[in-house]
TrEMBL record:
Protein name as it appears in the record: CUB domain-containing protein
InterPro entries: CUB_dom, Non-NMDA_GluR_Accessory, Sperma_CUB_dom_sf
CDD domains recorded: CUB
Position of the signal peptide: none
Domain CUB: 1-82
GO cellular component, one term: plasma membrane
Record's keyword terms, sorted: Disulfide bond
Pfam families: CUB
């Protein structure tokens, strides 16, 4: 049974800043693998809710960096493992 990970960031309350997240002191980085050398799926900053992230396989690496002088509340997330359904195509028969 092949699985992937579904994580939902229910609340994200980090230091507010520009929308690009490039120069933010507080960020959440999500990688599609076992370490930060895996491909990045997303980078979160500022505020948000109900943000869903799906891995392509059974591993997901999350890095939370909080080094700003202006504290935020952080984040709340939940995760679950999902079976990866085989892709089927329904072709009409004639």
């Amino acid at each position: 049974l092949k699985e992937r990970i579904r994580i939902v960031f229910e609340e994200v309350t980090l230091q507010k800043g520009d929308l690009s997240c490039l120069n933010r002191a507080d960020v959440i980085k999500v990688f599609d693998g076992r370490s930060s050398s895996a491909p990045a799926i997303t980078v979160l900053c500022n505020e948000g809710s109900e943000l869903e992230v799906l891995s392509t396989g059974p591993d997901l690496y999350i890095e939370f960096v909080a080094n700003s002088e202006w504290p935020g509340q952080g984040f709340k997330a939940s995760f679950q493992f999902q079976a990866m359904d085989s892709i089927t195509s329904d072709s009409p028969s004639t």
